[in-house]
Amino acid sequence: MRILRSVFVHTALISFFVGSGVAACSTNSKSASEQVCDARSDFSGAVSKVVDDLRSLNLGEARSDADNVRSTFDELVDSINKLTQEQRQRLQPQIDKVKSDVSSFSDAQNPGDLRSSLDTTKSDVQAVVDAIQNDLEC
Asked: Which pLDDT score, from 0 to 100, does residue 101 have?
């Protein structure tokens, strides 16, 4: 149980950092759409890695990989902020849902709740990835 509590604390920290939307450096040579497409791919991969780590109860790796989730989410938010207002408005509900999902990790009381929360988050991350792919054709 102490290990699960540690996972919850680290996940709460991820939630805080994801919610903070810290800006990342950008590449000026790529269009805003290209930057979002690249960032969505990086973020999706980082989330999948942490989900896989947690499902295998590889908590040490999950903790180390959590920083990558935060930084890739920050890059995604930063790149989305460079899109047109109309594009941002279409993607904002999915981004907000992912922020909410990540914060729900700290509410999980047992491994079953954690798995359910992970499944929901992974599904919502996929919705963000799909929305970006459809809107920006990447």
From this structure: 76
